[in-house]
Amino acid sequence: MTDGLISRDELLERGWTLHQIFAVLDEPEDRLPSRHWYNKIGEPLYSINRVKVAEFRIGLSSERPTDHEWVSCEISKRSNSFPILTFDFQYLAEKITPGSTKIINSLRISHPRYGRIPGTVDTEKELIKIRLIEIANFAFGDQFDDYVVLQKFLSNRNIWAQQMLSKKWHQNVVVRPAHYGNYVSKAYSKTAAAKFINSISLIYGGIVKSQDDTIVDLIDFLTDSPRIRFDKKGAL
After folding, report:
1. Is the N end or the C end of the chain the one with fewer CB atoms within 10 Å?
2. Distance (Å, rounded) from C-alpha 36 to C-alpha 88?
3. Mind giving me the DSSP string for 23-42?
4. Could you list the pLDDT tens digit for every one of the 236 residues in the chain?
5. What's the distance, CA 42 to chain centroid?
6. Rounded Cα gap, residues 159 and 28, in angstroms
7. Is residue 229 within 8 Å of residue 196, measured between CB atoms?
8. How many CB atoms lie within 10 A of CB 117?
């Protein structure tokens, strides 16, 4: 451990499993230089404060974290418990409409210096709207002709969805990108698609927000991160 950060190997020594590391901690605070040519992004490092809170929350430790450790997790944008729900938007869209995500992925090609081709972000956002319509039609029947109709549905759906998922969602749940995909749900049944639409209606309606309590733009979020996780807020 160095400068308040702990490595993945040290977590394993503390009794963590790889699945727990990915699903509970997800995004690391920092990275060490890679020790192997195959690892191009470097070794992940995690905040020891967040680790201690996480260990207490998931039952790896009975030692209650200090007030300082709790507070540091309250203000952190990173997770410290198992997610409540996870979704892979692109995986779900691909299963419902095979081949539909290839174009989206081709638009993500980025030059290391000049970035993405001008206009590709806007094109991707329009394609995401089409994929959302396809998922909604798969889940609820062919009733959505365009994104405006789907937007009205999401606006009306979020109150019902909140009651179905949990009455406390608007108080205790935040949405985050899921940086690792190996723990994210790969379900693609009609039930899974309906749960996805219900959940994103809470993002669209501003009921579920980010960790810093700001409203999340649904399309921007899916453009940046097609993998989604819903978490209990802070260290509650």
Report:
1. N
2. 29
3. III-S-SEEEPPSSTT-SS-
4. 667 999 999 999 999 999 999 999 999 999 887 665 555 567 899 999 999 999 999 999 999 999 998 888 877 889 999 999 999 999 999 999 999 888 887 777 765 665 667 778 899 999 999 999 999 999 999 899 999 999 999 999 877 787 766 656 656 889 999 999 999 999 999 999 999 999 999 999 998 999 888 999 999 999 999 999 999 876 54
5. 22
6. 34
7. no
8. 12
Q: How far apart are the first and last CA of the chain?
A: 26
Q: What is the number of alpha carbons within 13 Å of residue 80 lying toward its C-beta?
A: 28
Residue with tokens 């190997």: 9
CA 153 to chain centre: 23
CB-CB contact of 105 with 159 (8 Å): no
Within its chain, how far is the Cα of 236 from the centroid?
18
Locate the DSSP E strands across 36-194: 43-47, 85-88, 110-111, 115-116, 173-177
